[in-house]
Design a protein that fits this description.
Blueprint (H helix, E strand, L loop, with lengths): L10 H24 L5 H5 L2 H34 L5 H8 L7 H12 L6 H8 L7 H26 L3 H8 L4 H12 L1 H16 L3 H6 L10 H11 L1 H30 L1
Helix pairs in contact: 3-7, 3-10, 7-10, 8-9, 10-13, 12-13
Pfam family, one: BPD_transp_1
Family: Belongs to the binding-protein-dependent transport system permease family. CysTW subfamily.
InterPro entries: MetI-like (IPR000515), MetI-like_sf (IPR035906), ModB_ABC (IPR011867), NifC_ABC_porter (IPR006469)
Length: about 260
């Protein structure tokens, strides 16, 4: 139901609503007010900033690619296949959404670290070490970002009419062919929205990254980690970097606005 224009708002609701609005907007406004706009170009063109920005964009894009490669089939499995324990599997898949990122980083170390249950075999058999590397950044970002993609794609799959796939099956198409030729085009908007969300989440990841990959400039230091380090030594640089991440967040909201409007109408 759409809100009525000109409807009066009870004071007991209006007051906390305005306080909540102020609480959410005041920090953002403070960042904009305190940002050193005159020195912003110089702050954003330092080699350290460019290294962090380049690494952040590279790792976030790679993490999104990993999420697409693994998350879309997993979302299809959860939406289209009925099997025992599906509800439990869905809960485990979405657990990183509510899991503290630092805990996620510790879990990755226990699994993929040099002494982890899988990482020790990767090290012994292939000489492959994942923690404290750029690959480790990508894995940490994928771990926290993939659930956003899965939720978006699964919701789109549930809304899509399965009769198109059933009709393709009656015409002799295999299930994979029906998925590739019919399902994927139908759910493309949901995949795009999920990919944007996953990319933005990966770009802003901090806790799992610093725990699993460390904070090495040019190697694992992404933008959020650079903000954390700059805040201790150069607050103006921290504000400039924060402004970049804020601009990216606003761009993501603008990109997803059409999907949200479609979903709510």
């Amino acid at each position: 139901m759409k809100p009525r224009r000109g409807a009066t708002v009870p004071l007991p609701l209006l007051t906390p609503a305005l306080l909540g609005l102020a609480f959410l907007l005041l920090p953002l406004l403070a960042l904009l007010v305190r940002t050193p706009w005159r020195s912003l170009p110089a702050l954003l063109t330092t080699p350290e900033v460019w290294d962090a920005l380049r690494l952040s964009l590279l790792c976030a894009t790679a993490a999104t690619a990993v999420s697409l490669l693994l998350g879309v089939p997993l979302a299809w499995l959860l939406a289209r296949v009925d099997f025992p324990g599906r509800a439990l599997l869905r809960a485990l898949v979405t657990l990183p959404l509510v899991l503290p990122p630092v805990v996620g980083g510790v879990a990755l170390l226990m699994a993929l670290g040099r002494n982890g249950i899988v990482g020790k075999w990767l090290d012994q058999w292939f000489g492959l070490t994942l923690p404290f590397t750029t690959t480790g950044v990508i894995l940490a970002e994928s771990f926290v970002a993939m659930p956003f993609l899965i939720i978006s794609v699964e919701g789109t799959l549930r809304a899509a009419d399965p009769r198109y796939e059933e009709a393709a099956a009656t015409l002799g198409a295999t299930r994979f062919t029906a998925f590739r030729r019919i399902t994927l085009p139908l759910i493309a908007p949901g995949i795009a929205a999920g990919a944007v969300l996953a990319w933005a989440r990966a770009l802003g990841e901090f806790g799992a990254t610093i725990t699993f990959a460390g904070n090495f400039p040019g190697k694992t230091q992404t933008m959020p980690l650079a903000v954390y380090l700059a805040l201790q030594n150069n607050p103006e640089s921290a504000m400039a970097l924060s402004l970049v991440l804020l601009a990216v967040s606003i761009a993501v909201l603008a990109a997803l606005r059409e999907n949200w409007l479609t979903a709510t109408n």
